TrEMBL record:
Protein name: Microsomal glutathione S-transferase 1
Annotated transmembrane regions: 6-28, 68-84, 118-139
InterPro entries, sorted: MAPEG-like_dom_sf, Membr-assoc_MAPEG, MGST1-like
Catalytic activity: RX + glutathione = an S-substituted glutathione + a halide anion + H(+)
Membrane association type: Multi-pass membrane protein
Cell membrane is among the record's keywords: no
Organism per entry: Marinobacter albus
UniProt keywords, alphabetically: Acetylation, Endoplasmic reticulum, Membrane, Transferase, Transmembrane, Transmembrane helix
Primary location recorded for the protein, binned into one broad class: endoplasmic reticulum
Subunit structure, as described in the record: Homotrimer; The trimer binds only one molecule of glutathione.
C-alpha cells in the first residue's frame, strides 16, 4: 500500500472514532441526567420532554456540525490527493496533523477553550489548503 493510502486510511478511521465519541458524549449526558428533548425519548424513560437540550449536548452538537463542515471536505481531498499521486511524503504529515487538529478542536470546543479552539481549526484548514495546492500541482 502506498504511503498516502496508508495514512489516509488511518486518518479516516481515527476521524470516525472521534465523531462517534461526540455522539456517545451527547448520549452520556442525556442518559446520565435522563433529560431528553425529543418526546418519544423522554417518554421511553418516563419523563416529560425537556424544553431545551442540556448545555453539554448543545456544545457537542455544535462541535459535530463543525466536523460536518470540515471532515467530508478533508476526506474528498484525501481521495483526490491519492488519485493524482500528490507528494506522498507529505501525506502522513497532512493527514495526521489534520486529524490531530480535529481532535484538539473538539476537546477545546467541549471545554470552551479559546483561542486554542480557533488555532486547532485553523491548523486543519491550512492542511486542507496545502492538500489542495499539492493536488493542483500534481495535475498534468
Amino acid at each position: 500500500m502506498d504511503q498516502a493510502e496508508y495514512w489516509y486510511a488511518i486518518a479516516s478511521v481515527l476521524l470516525f472514532f472521534k465523531m462517534f465519541a461526540i455522539s456517545a458524549y451527547q448520549g452520556f449526558h442525556r442518559i446520565g441526567k435522563l433529560t431528553f428533548k425529543i418526546p418519544e425519548d423522554a417518554a421511553f424513560v418516563g419523563r416529560e420532554p425537556a424544553e431545551e437540550e442540556l448545555p453539554q449536548v448543545q456544545r457537542a452538537a455544535r462541535a459535530w456540525l463543525n466536523d460536518l463542515e470540515n471532515i467530508p471536505v478533508f476526506l474528498a481531498l484525501g481521495v483526490a490527493y491519492i488519485w493524482v499521486e500528490a507528494t506522498s511524503g507529505m501525506a502522513p504529515w497532512l493527514f495526521m496533523v489534520f486529524t490531530a487538529a480535529r481532535y484538539l478542536h473538539t476537546l477545546f470546543y467541549l471545554g470552551g477553550i479559546q483561542p486554542w479552539r480557533t488555532v486547532a481549526y485553523a491548523v486543519g484548514v491550512v492542511c486542507m489548503f496545502i492538500m489542495s495546492f499539492q493536488i493542483l500541482y500534481a495535475l498534468p
